[in-house]
């Protein structure tokens, strides 16, 4: 196999499943649950009334049709064409699984469409073309072309992929991009730019050996030369050895284009004295001896998947001076195509580019390289091996993190600028600075922040107590927590009951999962002594405390946390929020100077993230409590990458109509005035006023908020609870929480109907809060 590296994700195999810490059953369940698959179509215009239908369809739809017939460019103004990409495959090279056919490629193509949307807000559709005939494939895509703003070719075997891409580029006036080739090349090129910089080299002087002669390898060779590497210094190898001038065995026109004059005939010979190795081949293709023969400070991109040509451990053992990148997420410097294709298409679509040319690819690579050299934001800086470590430009950070929220406002701008400079942009963007700001607003930072939280927990695993350990979904969540690399779960419950759940699930108890029986734990006396010292002046005898420790798993879990036997606690499945909190609070105090409250995140496609408080504790908070809730909520919003704009909500707006509850909210605003806090706030106001800056500007120009409120402090628990339960069910939004804020130790209480996924997420959040304590 000449080119094992395919697409944005590692080839799927049993080894990959183990690496990703998911099981085949879990993967199948995700794809089958609810609405099968990963995609659906959402309407962008209201279709509620007869008038709506008349405008959107017959007879109103005739008007845009007539305009487009007169001027085809107007399709970008009146249809979704300008933000719509087709992900097209015939399934002849699906990941690392080979020729599975068009239909079997559909899950991958749906996933690619999902990545386009997730990372760059590009809409897409998967097209699975049921033919291996090049002419038929080209004609099918060509004739469907008017529907789309761009074509992303995927999982098509070589050499047909080269022919298909070239012919479609010639026939179509929209971007056609085979990501398996160019995506890998662009991201690897970004890493190479930084590795060359760190080792004091110049591109024109380096010698590169590329092992593999498939789609990605050929694209890497072409892009390296386009960026300034001297063509004769790029040596291509395949399973037959070096691709040299005069060779006839196993050759084709694409390999021949990169044949060079050289005496080297084997990979080992080519590697002698080389500055850089690009591997797009198979596990173990590079030996320690080959690496030892390379030049000083060798640059190694071992990108075979699922296992690299040589592992970082093996490489560092013989060449500690090397810089190494792989295709793996569990090593530094991952060459991940998701850093490229969403943002490249975003920029190309926004200037209505007729193609994606070398200038645009080089611009994307240079933009990625420059981003890696910048200071890493706090919300991204989560991949260190332990507290106190940080991501910083250097040998182990030459490629940006895929969840860096700055990618959306950097790479598309560079691509768009290159398209304009190279003459392929049909709609130039006059103000690229404003364009960058617009891009930043397309995506919400919370999804990125949550992913970064999980990365940080993997790097800093913690011991989390699952207080209701006999429940099947709790056991499932604990298994997933351990398998995800988040840390060591502790299940509180009776051993025989929990072992019975493991048997029901058909799994052995993982070695990293501990069972603690509250009734006969060796720590019970220590916990009872601790609890008695806290409660003896509250009417509790020692035997009362001992009984609580033995019989109340939340009390037991709280004592574990308080005395340092665990890092965090998750509970709530079997008892109401208030009862669960009472048990935990008997052993854990609020943080000094803070109040307890629930904070819920509402994630909506249009309005972004809104923080709502208090959603769990205070039925009718007074002014001082409302003010403190605002301060703590604003701090939480900042930690998740949002600049807080706090609105105190009420049925009244700035004194009209009057009432007792609005008075408490106005008093809270005065208290914040006195505290001179460092965030925007105002109130009281109705919800529409808080969320609509235009309405405020018209009726209340004195309001201090400069944009839509994103932290909503509710007047009471009733309103907060109704809002956060209703909104996700009435919209396409999502709710996370309520997160328990204000405790001195990390505790999260889930809803009684929490799913395994919710339990896992809350456990991860609790573990994250424990890092650095």
TrEMBL record:
Residues annotated as binding a divalent metal cation: 154-155, 180, 305
Any one GO molecular function term: oxidoreductase activity, acting on the CH-OH group of donors, NAD or NADP as acceptor
Entries under Pfam families matching the protein: malic (PF00390), Malic_M (PF03949), PTA_PTB (PF01515)
SMART domains named among the record's database cross-references: malic, Malic_M
Stretches assigned to the Malic enzyme NAD-binding domain: 181-420
Keyword flag Chloroplast: no
Family: In the N-terminal section; belongs to the malic enzymes family.
Name of this protein: Allosteric NADP-dependent malic enzyme
């Amino acid at each position: 196999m000449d080119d094992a590296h395919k697409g944005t994700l590692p080839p799927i195999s049993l080894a990959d499943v183990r690496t990703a810490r998911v099981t085949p059953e879990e993967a199948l369940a995700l794809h089958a649950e609810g609405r099968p698959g990963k995609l659906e179509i959402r309407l962008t215009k209201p279709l509620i009334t007869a008038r709506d239908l008349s405008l959107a369809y017959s007879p109103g739809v005739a008007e845009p049709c007539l305009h487009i017939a007169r001027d085809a460019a107007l399709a970008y103004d009146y249809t979704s064409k300008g933000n719509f990409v087709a992900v097209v495959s015939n399934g002849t090279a699906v990941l690392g699984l080979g020729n599975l056919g068009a239909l079997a490629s559909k899950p991958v193509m749906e996933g690619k469409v999902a990545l386009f949307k997730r990372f760059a807000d590009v809409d897409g559709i998967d097209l699975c073309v049921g033919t291996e005939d090049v002419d038929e494939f080209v004609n099918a895509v060509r004739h469907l072309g008017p529907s789309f703003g761009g074509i992303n070719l995927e999982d098509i075997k070589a050499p047909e992929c080269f022919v298909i891409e070239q012919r479609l580029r010639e026939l179509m006036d929209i971007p056609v991009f085979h990501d398996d080739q160019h995506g890998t090349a662009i991201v690897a090129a970004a890493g190479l730019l930084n590795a060359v910089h760190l080792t004091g080299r110049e591109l024109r002087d380096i010698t590169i050996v590329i092992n593999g002669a498939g789609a990605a390898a050929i694209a890497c060779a072409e892009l390296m030369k386009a960026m300034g590497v001297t063509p004769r210094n790029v040596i291509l190898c395949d399973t037959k050895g070096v691709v040299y001038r005069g060779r006839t065995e196993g050759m084709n026109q694409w390999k021949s284009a990169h044949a060079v004059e050289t005496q080297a005939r084997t990979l080992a010979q080519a590697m002698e004295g080389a500055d850089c190795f690009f591997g797009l081949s198979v596990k173990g293709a590079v030996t320690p001896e080959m690496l030892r023969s390379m030049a000083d400070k060798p640059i190694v991109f071992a990108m075979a998947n699922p296992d690299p040509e040589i592992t970082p451990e093996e490489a560092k053992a013989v060449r500690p001076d090397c810089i190494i990148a792989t295709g793996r997420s569990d090593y530094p410097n991952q060459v991940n195509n998701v850093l490229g294709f969403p943002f490249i298409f975003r920029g190309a679509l926004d200037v209505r580019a007729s193609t994606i040319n070398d200038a645009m690819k080089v611009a994307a690579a240079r933009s990625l390289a420059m981003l890696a050299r910048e200071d890493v934001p706090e919300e991204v800086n989560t991949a260190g091996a332990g507290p106190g470590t940080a991501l910083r430009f250097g040998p182990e950070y030459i490629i940006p993190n895929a969840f860096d929220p700055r990618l959306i406002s950097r790479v598309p701008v560079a691509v768009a600028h290159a398209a304009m400079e190279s003459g392929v942009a049909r709609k130039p963007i006059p103000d690229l600075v404003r364009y960058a700001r617009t891009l930043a607003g397309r995506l919400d930072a919370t999804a990125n922040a949550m992913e970064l939280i999980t990365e940080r927990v993997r790097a800093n695993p913690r011991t989390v107590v699952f207080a209701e350990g006999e429940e099947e979904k709790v056991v499932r969540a604990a298994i997933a927590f351990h398998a995800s690399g988040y840390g060591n779960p502790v299940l509180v419950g009776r051993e025989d009951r929990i072992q019975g759940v493991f048997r029901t699930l058909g799994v052995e108890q993982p070695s990293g999962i501990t069972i603690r029986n509250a009734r006969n734990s060796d720590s019970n006396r220590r916990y009872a002594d601790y609890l008695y010292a806290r409660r003896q002046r509250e009417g509790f005898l020692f035997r009362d405390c001992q009984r609580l420790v033995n019989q109340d798993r939340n009390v037991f879990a709280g004592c574990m946390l308080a005395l340092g036997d665990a890092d965090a606690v998750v509970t709530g499945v079997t008892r109401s929020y208030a009862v669960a909190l009472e048990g935990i609070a008997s052993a854990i105090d609020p943080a000094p100077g803070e109040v307890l409250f629930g904070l819920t995140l509402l994630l909506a496609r249009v309005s972004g993230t809104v923080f709502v408080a208090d959603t769990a504790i205070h039925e009718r908070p007074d002014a001082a409590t409302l003010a403190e809730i605002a301060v703590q909520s604003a701090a939480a919003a900042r930690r998740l990458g949002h600049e807080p704009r706090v609105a105190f909500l009420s049925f009244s707006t700035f004194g009209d109509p009057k009432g007792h509850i609005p008075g408490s909210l106005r008093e809270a605003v005065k208290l914040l005035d006195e505290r001179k806090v460092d965030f925007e706030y105002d109130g009281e106001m109705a919800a529409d006023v808080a969320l609509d800056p235009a309405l405020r500007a018209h009726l209340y120009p004195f309001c201090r908020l400069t944009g839509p409120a994103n932290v909503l402090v509710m007047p009471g628990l009733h309103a907060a609870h109704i809002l956060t339960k209703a909104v996700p069910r009435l919209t396409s939004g999502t709710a996370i929480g309520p997160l328990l804020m204000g405790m001195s130790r990390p505790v999260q209480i889930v809803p009684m109907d929490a799913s395994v996924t919710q339990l896992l997420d809350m456990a991860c959040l609790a573990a994250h809060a424990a890092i650095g304590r």
